[in-house]
Design goal:
The protein is about 80% helix and about 5% strand. It is built from four helices and three strands; from the N terminus they run αααββαβ. The chain has helices spanning about 5-85, 90-170, 175-185, 210-215; strands at about 190-195, 200, 230-235. Helix 1 (about 5-85) runs antiparallel to helix 2. The longest helix has about 80 residues, at about 90-170.
Length: about 240
């Protein structure tokens, strides 16, 4: 047999525990959104890094292209100067300079080829980064919509639960309600605990016989002598 007030407190405790869960879920929504933002930013950063790498490769390739062009121009000038000179040593010097430039051009063109190969190898990485960003954006947008809907639902459920709780608590003695609320906060959401096998299910300490007798008599509120929780006999 339960005291009516204890029975009422058990109902209130159930609502309070549900309220605590609802509020915790609501509190976690901004954290979930922040995590989604971080994920999106990470994918965006990956794409930016891939684009930067592509720009670096292309810039280096163009620089080499310009260097090759400059050397071809110098070769053209040396060829003209070679035709104008009548001195053999100058003629040979121009030939030597031209050959040196041709070797430099060959080396630069080899570097160009390496960069072109690097770009070809990088293209799939860049394409994947772009695809990942598009996929992530779509996924994040859907999840944001879901979280907004979740917020609306949780807010409505919280309001409904709080209204119901207000009606329930209005029927409980103020001093008893105050005691219950303090216990609920201090005892991890378990202010009213059952007794099973003569032990408090809050602290698991065995209750003394006179405590068990008082609970069964159901004439007054009985507290656990160890943890202070309000007790009732579990069926």
């Amino acid at each position: 047999m339960l005291l009516p007030s204890v029975k009422q407190l058990l109902i209130i405790q159930d609502r309070d525990r549900k309220l605590r869960t609802l509020k915790l879920e609501l509190k976690n929504v901004p954290l979930e959104k922040k995590a989604l933002d971080s994920k999106s930013q990470g994918i965006t950063a990956n794409l930016e890094a891939a684009k930067l790498r592509a720009r670096e490769i292309e810039t280096k390739r163009k620089d080499l292209e310009n260097e090759v062009r400059a050397r071809h121009d110098r070769i053209g000038k040396y060829e003209n100067q070679k035709l104008e000179t009548r001195k053999n040593d100058e003629y040979q010097a121009y030939n030597h300079a031209i050959e040196s430039l041709k070797k430099e051009i060959a080396a630069l063109e080899d570097q160009e080829l390496e960069l072109m190969e690097a770009m070809e190898q990088h293209k799939p990485i860049l394409a994947q980064a772009e695809a990942d960003l598009q996929s992530t954006k779509a996924s994040v947008q859907r999840l944001f919509v879901d979280l907004d809907a979740k917020t609306v639902t949780l807010t409505a459920q919280t309001k409904e639960m709080e209204d119901e709780r207000a009606k329930l608590t209005a029927e409980v003695d103020e001093d008893l309600l105050d005691t219950y609320q303090r216990l609920f906060e201090k005892k991890d959401g378990l202010a009213v605990a059952g007794v099973a096998n003569e032990s408090c299910q809050g602290c698991h300490v065995k209750s003394q016989p006179h405590i068990i007798h008082a609970i069964k008599a159901a004439k007054e509120i009985v507290h656990c002598l160890n943890c202070g929780r309000i007790l009732y006999i579990e069926n």
